[in-house]
Design brief:
It contains 10 helices and 14 strands. With 279 residues, it is an alpha/beta fold. The chain is elongated and about 60 Å long. The termini are far apart. The N terminus is likely disordered.
């Protein structure tokens, strides 16, 4: 009987030890792990909610803007509509700025961001990016009658830039004797070219292609003045399932040529650069 009592005592200790071991192996979600740790992938969240919340910059036509009826429209908005359609959910466009793209993802105010979002290593420390869906560089917007074909034709001429942008520094780095004239906005710089106050404007080639589409007297030089920038969808870090789904969506819209069709619809030309560069 004594032997049995001793065994029962040790058995109880083994049970307690086992419970402590299990507790030690249980992962406790930290506050910074967000919805993915607490409630699964954003993919399930969208499907259960029945609404896809897309952060989009609605002040940068033709990527995103408000149309004459006051509704979101543009290249990014069309892609968002296609994604919502594929998922079988409603679409909610959340007007977003460059400054709050990352905070809105981190605080779960949006499920994904389409907002002229260039992939880079600094941003990748905080969020995740899909594969690219559009590529850009810098080029010149000129009047067709100017005879300017490239930045090499700009010696002794005037280039319009926007105050606060890096475009002026990019022009200086080209070591070409040009005059740089700064303007308060992109529209003011474009007007300067139209009115002959500047010979060219330097800006994102996608944006310039749209401007040339609006005005047949304008043209965009066929060159890349800075390294290519690959824009992608931004998602919250750590949600691999959502990232996989979005990457497959982009694969499908690219393979079907739908993305190229939407690009030509909004920019008036075929995509200038391949999404998958050859190294």
């Amino acid at each position: 009987m004594k032997h049995v009592r001793v065994s029962a005592k040790f058995a109880g200790l083994f049970v307690v030890a086992g419970l402590l071991a299990l507790a030690g192996c249980t992962k406790v979600a930290s506050p910074g792990e967000g919805a993915a740790a607490a409630g699964g992938s954003a993919l399930q969240g969208v499907l259960q909610r029945g609404t896809l919340r897309v952060g989009d910059c609605l002040t940068f036509a033709p990527f995103g803007f408000y149309n004459k009826d006051g509704q979101p429209d543009g290249y990014d908005v069309d892609l968002a509509r296609e994604l919502a359609k594929e998922m079988g959910v409603k679409l909610e466009i959340v007007n977003t700025t460059s400054a709050n793209r990352i905070p809105n993802l981190q605080t779960d105010k949006v499920d994904v961001v389409f907002c002229n979002f260039t992939r880079n290593l600094e941003r990748a420390k905080e969020i995740a990016f899909t594969t690219p869906y559009v590529v850009a560089s810098e080029a010149l917007l000129v009047k067709k009658s100017s005879g300017i074909k490239s930045v090499k034709d700009m010696s002794g001429r005037t280039i319009a830039t926007v105050k606060g942008s890096t475009n002026g520094d990019e022009v200086r780095a080209l070591n070409i004797p040009v005059k740089i004239q700064e303007y308060d906005s992109s529209q003011a710089a474009i007007l300067a070219v139209k009115q002959g106050q500047a010979d060219a404007m330097i800006e994102d080639n996608n944006f310039l292609a749209y401007q040339a589409k609006l005005d047949p007297d304008l043209a965009v030089t066929d060159e890349a003045l800075v390294p290519l920038e690959y824009n992608a969808f931004g998602v919250k870090a750590g949600d691999q399932q959502w990232l996989n789904y979005l990457n497959l969506f982009l694969f499908n819209v690219n393979a079907s040529k739908l993305n190229a069709q939407l690009y030509k619809k909004w920019f008036g030309v075929d995509p200038r650069y391949p999404l998958n560069p050859q190294f």
